[in-house]
Records
---
Amino acid sequence: MQAYLKLIKFDNLILIALAQLFIKYGLFEPFDIDITLNAFGISLLIVSTISLVAAANIMLHIQNKEYAIIEETSEAVISEKIMNRLFIIFNVIGVAIGFYLSNIIGKPKLAALFIVVSGVFYIYTTYLKEILVLKNILIGVLMALGLIGVTIFDLLPAITEQNRVSQKVIFLIVVDYSIFAFIIVTIREILKDCIHIDRDHNAGLPTIPITLGKERTTKLISGLTLIPIGLIIYYVYTYLFNNSIAVVIVLGLLVAPLLYFMFKSWGAENNKEFKTLSLILKIVLFIASLSLLLYQFILK
């Protein structure tokens, strides 16, 4: 069972599901804005989203020829045949539920979004895997879409001329979080490529660490971290500056860990350090998701 959970990256799926729930019940519900999905609807969206992300994770494992996806100390191995079957099953579940959800909210054209997401990683692994950085960007986009998807299916169908202004404010907050998630996940994926540099080299995959070398890549990662730090500081100064408690929370729980990450990544050399840094970014993502619960106290 542990092997299968690692195959689909279960911890990442939980993070996405929690972020979607926090958007729904921490951002939408407290402000009493017009929405489309009830509890059953958001449950369908979550299941569809994590199914498609699980399928993408499986396809990337197949591409990496990493069939023994658990720790080296374990004896369990998942064959490529089983992974292909799981990839199909998760894709079918994700697209089918997405199609059903799109129809019950009266927006059948939105089903195309699930079909595109379903096919993009197959197209990548089949035709586009030689393009440098594309994998890292696609995974970041997938995370961002998971967040924006809540607004697409819950918020946008309920927009009218009367509520357009209030709906737009909430929508833009989610977009900001989606951009932040995209940047953090992309940086984390580049960092993970440092961990798997030998595997990727043997598989013939063109990753940034293979192209630039580990040392230059760690410097690049450190430099890229300035982007989310700058965005957070700008966001705090623009929207939260009058709320001292919110400023302290954001600076202490988001900016401080990212500053630590930036300095430590500059000189990181071994996999133990890379894994610690990867964990820091995962914690930052979780804290950022939790912060969605604070808007009901900050904006009211």
---
Amino acid sequence: LTYVRKEKQFVALIETSTLQGDDMSEEETRTEQLSLHICPVVESKDQEGSSCSESESQSDIGTKKKSYKCDICGRCYTQQCKLKKHYRTHTGEGLFSCQTCGKSFCRINDLNVHKKIHTDQRPFSCKSCGKNFSRISNLNIHNRIHTGERPFSCEFCGKRFTRNKNLNDHKRIHTGERQFSCKSCGKSFSRFSKLNVHKRIHTGERPFSCESCGKSFRGISHLNIHKRIHTGEKSFSCESCGKSFSRNRDLNVHRRIHTGERPFSCKACGKRFSRVGNLYRHMKTHTGQGPL
């Protein structure tokens, strides 16, 4: 590992280790050049992958822990090897892919855990709604739906989330970061997985079918949401009035009834709405024509 000083950045040429998975026919080696910000930091969270805090003075370098910072999204890691694995989520290269649904992972261990979804191995059950999970960490995150706990908040708008990953995805709304582009139509996405699902619009591929009615979907998440029509499952409950919903986003929209939040405003007259669909309908009163 060689570092070259350039202003306040260090550029590292990283020879990746040989990747070998069960579904790979031959060994694959590649060299990446990453721009790594190495800064002494005071960690604000115990977990890896949190945002870096402000750099301390140069005199404190010897006493502070060094952090490897991703130059694309700003996430920090205490070990360079963990940053290297994280970087693949941006490039889409060197990932371990599920042969059943195509979802990709940085680590073979995460892929093996994911495969349990398809084999229906879900040993961890929620005591509140009975939903099952393949690992206990996912169950703990799911429990926040019932408790209403949202420990991760956006510093730009204050919106809160149950998972740090969802917060990081949300931040791209403010930064406008969309580094994954479709070669067919040019549409850009903030996540590589969303680009893969989008590509099926052009290919017509709908690999996920409902066993109850045969309807097919481009993404497995779309299928899982659809299944609730048949099961009647409504696992997302409003803590204010108890009303239940089959989708978390429907619950989030419903909560605005209690909070009075109206995030969508008309540029013509300033009137505000709790739903974007209501705003679109209102705009026709000014133009006689809805948005494109």
